[in-house]
Structures are given as C-alpha cells and as structure tokens.
Specification:
The complex is a heterodimer of chains A (about 280) and B (about 375). Chain A has about 280 residues and is mainly α. Chain A has one domain. In chain A, about 70% of the residues lie in helices and about 0% in strands. A two-stranded antiparallel ribbon of chain A has the order 1-2. The longest helix of chain A has 28 residues. Chain A is globular. Chain A starts with a helix and ends in a 12-residue tail after the last helix. Chain B is mainly alpha-helical. The chains are: A mainly alpha (about 280), B mainly alpha (about 375). Chains A and B meet through helix 4, helix 9 and helix 11 of A and helix 6, helix 12 and helix 14 of B. Chain A: Its main location: membrane. Chain A: Belongs to the binding-protein-dependent transport system permease family. LivHM subfamily.
C-alpha cells in the first residue's frame, strides 16, 4: 500500500513539474501552451542522445537550459506578436509547434519505444524500512518537490517573483509601474519550457520514450490544471499530487477503471466548481 | 447624421452581399458536380477525402465563428457517429437511410450531452475540457473492444439502396461524388443560413460580450448548447459519410489528432467565412498527397503553415483572398462602386469600436 502511495507520488511529482510550468505560462502570458507535451517529449529524446554520449547528469543540467532557450525564442518570435490578439491565436500557435516537434522527433529518433538508463548511483533499490523501492523514483520525487518548492519561494519571496505576479495580474498597470513586462514574460515562458524540459529528462529513465508520450501526458496535465484552477499555481500543485495518487491507487484497486480516473475526477470537480479548486472566475 | 450609415442602409448592403453569396454558392455547387468529368480518379478520391475532412473542419470552424469557442473534442462526435452507424448496420436490420440517420443522431446526442457540461466553462478551459472529454471517449472506445475492434479497425458491410444506388456502389468515388458534394454544399448552405437567423446573430452577440447579453435579459446558456449540438451534428454527418464512402472505421477516428487536424484545417482556410474550412481541407489534402512522396513531412509543414497563418493572416486563406480581391477592386475606376464609403462626419467623431469583451467596460462599471 505504501509502495503504491510512493508510486503515485512519483507520477504526481512529474505532473507537478509539468503543470507548474503550464500554469506559470498561462498565468502570465494567458497562453495555454499546447506545445507543453511536445516540449516534454523533445526533452526526453534530447536527454536520451546526450546521456548516451556523455552521462545522465550532463543531460539533467543541459536539457532544461536548452529548452529554456527555445522558450525564449518562441516568446520573442511568436507569442510577443500576438499580445492583444485573441488568446485562441496563441493556443493555435503553440498547437502548430506541437506538430513541428512531433515531426522532428519522428525524423531523428524514429517511432519505436526507447528508454534511458538511469545513472549507476540511482540504478538499484533502496531499503526504506517498510519496503525496498527503486532509488531512481525516490530521486524523481525529491528533485521534483525541491524544484517546485524553489519555484514557489521564488514567486513569493523574490523581487522578480513579485514582478511576475504583478504582470500576470495586470499587464498594463505593471508596465506603468516601471516593470519591463516583455522581459518578465520572456523569463516566465523560458522557465515554463525549462520545467517541461526537466520533467522530460526526469521521465526518461522512469517511463518509456515514444512519439505519443507528449500527447498522452499533455491531456493529464491539462486535467491537472483545469482541476486545480487556471490562473493559480497552488491549485494545480495540489491537483497534480491528487491525480497522481488517485491514478496509482486505482491501478491496483480497480484496474479496469484506472484509465478513467483522471477524467472522472475532472468531471466531478468541474460540475461542482467550474473554475477549479483554486481558480478565479474572472481570470478568463 | 450626414455621412453616418443608417441601419436601413447597413441592412440593404448586408442583404445585397448575402444575395451575391447565395449566387456564388449556387455556382460553386453546380460547378462541383462536374468534377468527375474533369479530374482523374485519384484526384477525385482526394477530393472526396477533402470533403469529409472539410465537413469536420466546418463543424469546428462554425462553432468557433459563431460562439468563439475552440473545440478539440469533435473527433468524439465524428467517431461516435461512425461507430454507431456500423453497430446499427450489424445489429439491426433497418433500411439504410434509418441506419445512417441513427448514426448521425448518436453523434448529435453525444454532442448535446457534452455541451450541457462544457459550455459553462469559460474560454480556454473549454478547449482543454473538450480535449479531455474527447480523450475520455477514445479511452472508452479502446476498452469496448468487442464493438470497436480497437486500432485494428472495423470493416463495415452496409446493405440497402441509397438514393437509387446500391450502397456498396458508394465505395467508388465516381458514384459517391454527387452524394458527398451534395451533402457538403447542403451543410454549407444550412450553416450559412443558420448564422443569419436571429439565433445566429444572438450567438455572435454572446460571443462578443456575454455579460452584456446576460444583463440585457437574453439567455446565454441554451443558445450556445444548441450551437454546440448543431456543430456536433455536422461532425456526425462527416463521420457517417466517411463510413459510407470508405466502409472502414478504426480507433484513430476518435483520437485527438483527428480533431486537431480538422481544427488546423479550419483555421488555415479561415473561420470567418463558412466556406473557409472546406477550402482549408482541400489545401491540406493536396499538400498531404504532394508531400507523401518526399519523406512524409506533412506534419512539420502543416504545423509551420499554421504558425505562419496565425502570425500573418489570422483570417486564414479566405482573408488573403479577400485582401487580394480588395486590392484588385481598388485599382478599378471608382464608378464601378455606386455607394461611396461612408466616412465619419468631422463634427461628431465616431466612438471607438466596442466589440470584444476585453475592451468593453462591463455595464456595472459605468
């Protein structure tokens, strides 16, 4: 049972890293990043190539940075032109990116399933007293929680975090107060892409790499964000852990229904609270 | 009021435009029927694919045009209609017309139910929610293996006589063409007419400012549920038509990329006009068949085209055509235009346009 909870936690933390990037980009740019799943997949494949040539640790550091740079480019040459236009245009733009990335991945890495080997230190299992558990998953849980704690601290405590929150709440006023909104936006989009990249690297040795992995997890991430509430950061974090746990427990207890669990959770939450657990109704 | 267009003048101009659009539609419908005599069998087959994809794109595009809501879940209604048709055809011995109607009806009912739940959800969350529900249907389809046969797909034997021909004949594009073309043009005309009714105008007003409509005492929920149902019905027609012409359906019909491609097609063609999505479908099918020979990079190309269209011409190809048309017309001598452009009178500057909910102050704010 406790092992199931840990499994749920590991998947939940992965969703946590992904959905906080998504929620961050939405909160500031008003963009639902449909390319998030594709970026996550691209990160996993790039990590595969890098860790084959050097080591997993190099990939863990470089891949999020590479994708953050990609995020900067997308912001500079795409999203920035769409400020003031319908938010649906931004959705369509990121949706276009999804198709391009999917094609790139299929061209360079093929369509068959791959896995990344975890580094030797994390390869075995650890004795936790009540059970032995794969070390790598513990590493995923620890890293993910650490990163998200850092993200929340950055948003709540630092000066830049204050700017980010202010620009998300009211772009025009924040600009009038002397905040460089364009630069803040670029930072946030880069950070969001970087988080998707980190999730991709972390997922590499834990899940299987396939050209459909992005689309699959994107749906779950959307459910997390809708359940948690668009426009908030804390709500999706709670929802990610909730859905991760519910998923893992349902897989053991009611295997036939497990595939439906995230959807059912989403439907229940939306029927009771259309804006999600912590969402603001006016944000949309 | 000198120089200001009166309401009557605006309506007159609009009616004149509508008359021209109706004439253009009739011409296009008649010309399209001649396609089998002009193009090769392979091209006709492509055209038939384009019609089915165009219908699906039309359903999504029309919803976006009338309600401003972006649906990523229409593959569900497309697939449900297809599977329902095949199921009814196998299990019940109904006349073929009723079988097809039952399939479309199932897609429509599914859209109605989904609309009831999702239409309340605002803006972008709606897009994510329809995507999630579409995937829920896909998951369910995979589990109902006895009905759907999963990704292996289902070969369906339809029996009976449809419009004076054995339904098996519709496997041949030459025989099927009048049917598919007729369905497309009928749907185009019907959706165009619907958007000109009182209901269609009300939908557009709700799209532009739902809050103001609600304050003015109009229902904002049921008109949109109805619009979603109508659009789901069109997706259902596309699914059933696909089954009739290909006699095959598989789980990929339900997968989200089916909706995604249709949405891209609608946007590339242009959602401001009813004919935009079918136009986009033609472009897509042509592009796909052209790229099929060279390493099949149609995904990347179509993604790039979408990105460029969104950045450069948000109105899609229809907008580009209109711009070209306007440019050509402005070169003509001005006597060809009887009605001069009304310009705002200098003494009374026109109020800034107030059309999107983002710029309008809410009625309470004043």
């Amino acid at each position: 049972m406790l092992v199931q909870v840990l499994n749920g936690l590991a998947f939940g933390v992965l969703l946590l890293v992904l959905s906080s990037g998504l929620a961050l980009i939405f909160g500031l740019r008003g963009v639902v990043n449909f390319a998030h799943g594709a970026i996550y997949m691209l990160a996993a494949y790039v990590a595969l190539s890098i860790s084959d040539r050097t080591s997993f640790w190099v990939a863990l550091v470089t891949v999020p940075i590479l994708l953050a740079v990609a995020g900067l480019l997308v912001d500079r040459f795409g999203l920035r032109f769409l400020v003031g236009r319908s938010p649906l245009d931004m959705v369509l733009l990121t949706f276009g990116i999804t198709f391009v990335v999917a094609d790139v991945v299929q061209t360079f890495w093929g369509t068959h399933a791959r896995t990344i080997d975890p580094p030797r230190v994390l390869a075995g299992s650890t004795d936790l007293g009540f059970a032995t558990y794969p070390t790598y998953r513990l590493f995923v849980i620890a890293t993910g929680l650490l990163v998200c704690a850092g993200l929340v601290a950055w948003l709540k405590l630092s000066r830049t975090g204050l700017f980010v929150r202010a620009s998300g709440d009211d772009r025009v006023t924040a600009g009038a107060m002397g905040i460089n909104v364009d630069r803040v936006s670029a930072t946030v989009v880069a950070l969001g892409f970087g988080l998707a990249g980190l999730a991709g690297v972390l997922a590499g040795p834990y899940l299987t790499l396939s050209p459909s992995m992005g689309a699959e997890i994107l749906i779950t991430t959307f459910i997390v964000v809708v359940v948690g509430g668009l426009g908030s950061i804390g709500g999706p974090m709670v929802a990610a852990l909730l859905i991760g746990l519910a998923n893992a427990l349902a897989t053991v207890q009611v295997p036939t229904l497990a595939a439906y669990v995230p959807y059912l959770l989403m439907l229940v939450v939306l029927l009771l609270r259309p804006q999600g657990i912590a969402g603001r109704r006016t944000a949309l | 009021m000198s120089g200001q267009p009166t309401v009557a003048a605006t309506l007159r101009r609009r009616n004149r435009a509508a008359r021209w659009q109706a004439v253009a539609w009739a011409g296009l419908a008649a010309a399209g029927l001649g396609a089998p005599w002009v193009v090769s069998l392979y091209q006709l087959q492509l055209a038939q694919q384009a019609v089915v994809l165009g219908l699906l794109a039309l359903s999504i595009g029309w919803l976006l045009r009338q309600t401003g809501q972006l649906s990523f879940g229409h593959a569900a209604f497309y697939g449900i209609a297809g599977y329902a048709t095949s199921y009814v055809a196998q299990e019940a011995d109904l006349p073929i017309g009723l079988t097809l109607a039952a399939g479309v009806a199932c897609g429509t009912v599914a859209a109605f139910v989904v609309g009831l739940v999702t239409i309340r959800v605002p803006g972008i969350a709606f897009a994510m929610l329809t995507l999630a529900i579409g995937m829920l249907v896909w998951v369910a389809g995979g589990q109902l293996h006895s009905i759907t046969r999963g990704s292996d797909g289902l070969n369906v034997q339809l029996k009976g006589t449809l419009l004076g021909k054995d339904v098996v004949m519709y496997g041949n594009p030459v025989d099927a063409w009048p049917l598919v073309w007729g369905v497309l043009m009928t749907v185009v005309a019907a959706l165009w007419a619907l958007s000109r009714t009182m209901w269609g105008r009300r939908l557009a007003s709700i799209r532009d400012n739902a809050e103001r409509m609600r304050f003015s005492g109009y229902a904002t929920y049921w008109p949109r549920v109805l619009a979603f149902t109508v659009s789901g019905a069109v997706a259902g027609v596309a699914g059933t038509l696909n089954l009739v012409t290909t006699s095959f359906i598989s789980l990929s019909a339900l997968f989200w990329s089916t909706s995604g491609i249709a949405l891209i097609v609608a946007v590339i063609g242009g959602v401001r006009s009813v004919l935009g999505p079918p136009l986009g479908a033609v472009l897509f099918v042509v592009l796909q068949s052209y790229l099929a020979g060279s390493g099949n990079h149609y995904q990347a190309v179509i993604g790039l085209v979408l990105i460029v269209v969104v950045l450069v011409a948000p109105g899609g190809c229809v907008e580009l055509l209109e711009r070209g048309f306007e440019a050509a017309r402005s070169r003509l001598p001005s006597r060809s235009r009887k009605e001069p452009d009304p310009s705002p009178s200098p003494s009374r500057p026109r109020r800034p346009p107030c059309c999107s909910s983002m710029t309008c102050p809410s009625p309470t704010a004043a």
